[in-house]
Amino acid sequence: MKTLRVNLPGREYDIKIEKGSLDQSGELIARIHEPCNIAIVTDSNVAPLYSNRLITSMKKYGFSPKLITIPAGEGSKSVNMLTSLYAQMLDMGLTRSDLIIALGGGVVGDLTGFCASTLLRGIPFVQIPTTLLSQVDSSVGGKVAVNLPQGKNLVGTFYQPKLVIIDPTCLETLSDRIFSDGMAEVIKYGVILDENLFNTLRTSPTRTKITEVIGDIIYRSCDLKRMVVEEDEHDTGGRMILNFGHTFGHAIEKKYNFTDYTHGEGVAAGMVMAAEYGEHSGISPHGTAQQIAEVVTAFGLPAKIDIDKTSLINAVKVDKKGEGNLVTLVLAQRIGKAILQKTKKDGIWIW
Ligand code: GLY
Q1: How many CB atoms lie within 10 A of CB 266?
Q2: How far apart are CA 351 and CA 3, in angstroms?
Q3: Domains in the chain: how many in total?
């Protein structure tokens, strides 16, 4: 089993990556926690696929699991659903010496993590991500949140899990579109931090080919994220490079009411735009946007999405990472290296 250790003082944890590790969850969790009550939060898509295997494994090691199933979809990442989770967990008699498990994709992980970070001022939690996006990104690093009507992830905390268990075989049940959703974040790691990873994606440009090495791809992605998070857990500096393509991507998601495009699709087109912006600013070498567009397209993601310039400029101006009149742009200095550039909001221009 491949293991990565996230070294955050007082909040260290392992990321375990292995095919079939879902069935070893009981054993892995027993190494870090005494037998206890466990609330497993999952969604209506994942519950019929994987919850029984997790429950069986937990019981084998003396845990008492109870399943809470929420409706699949972004709509569940709400304050109402959070309140419902609080109530169900209190009804179960969950205490701070018990455990919460998030079994599912980003919505389940973010909602459950936020619930765990706030209920009774904090209950330990374990992430078992089942989508590519959550395996390579959202389950690692401790960002947990719910959405508000005013925007996504507007109420959140940094709350690290006690353990992340990644079973790449869970990806087999994903549709091509949702697999590609996660590939956008993998491509992003290649662009901002790792030219070799980017080249691997160029030479294995299909789901079938990349699946042959998916354990290595997940490991490398989590390792890159680990390094970034260890340097800047609270997203006040270097962690912002993980935002490459995201500001424009969020503008696309918002413009299309968070329904027409997945997060990864917005980020894919957003990365190409960010590279075009970089090329026009003289930071990214000519051809960077084209290179990214080719890999994005190979993995079934859009390299271009129609959006008006006003929406783009507004998205930059309201970005959560803005400070006063300044906004931090993430630009690719070359494939494999991104830089942060602080710019006055009113100095943002669109080519
Ligand atoms: N997904 C970006 C971050 O964790 O900072």
Answers
A1: 29
A2: 44
A3: 2
What is the distance in A from the centroid of ligand 1 to the CA of 155?
A: 15
**4-20 tens-digit pLDDT:** 999 999 999 999 999 99
Q: Is the dihedral of CA 174, 175, 178, 183 positive or negative?
A: positive
Residues 152 and 117 occupy one common structural domain: yes
Pocket of ligand 1 contains residue 137 by CB under 6 Å = yes
Angle at 207 between CA 300 and CA 203, to 5 degrees: 90
Q: In Å, how far are 45, 46, 75, 289 from 72, measured between CA atoms? A: 6, 8, 8, 34
CA distance 242 to 200: 20
C-beta neighbour count of 310 within 10 angstroms: 10
Handedness of CA 50, 70, 126, 65 (dihedral sign): negative
Please check whether residue 239 is in contact with residue 229, taking contact to mean a CB–CB distance below 8 angstroms.
Answer: yes
**pLDDT, tens only, 14-71:** 999 999 999 999 999 999 999 999 999 999 999 999 999 999 999 999 999 999 999 9
Evaluate: CB of 141 within 6 angstroms of ligand 1: yes
- The predicted-structure confidence for 215-269, as pLDDT tens digits, reads as follows 999 999 999 999 999 999 999 999 999 999 998 999 899 899 889 999 999 999 9
Its domain, for residue 35, covers 2-173
Q: Report which ligand 1 atom has the smallest distance to the Cα of 240.
A: 5
Residues 78 and 209 occupy one common structural domain: no
Residue of the nearest CA to atom 2 in ligand 1? 242
Cβ 14 under 6 angstroms from ligand 1 = no
Separation of 240 CA from ligand 1 center, angstroms?
Answer: 8
Measured CA to CA, the distance from residue 293 to residue 256 in angstroms comes to 21
SS3 of residue 151 by DSSP: strand
216 and 296 share one domain: yes
CB of 110 within 6 A of ligand 1: the answer is no
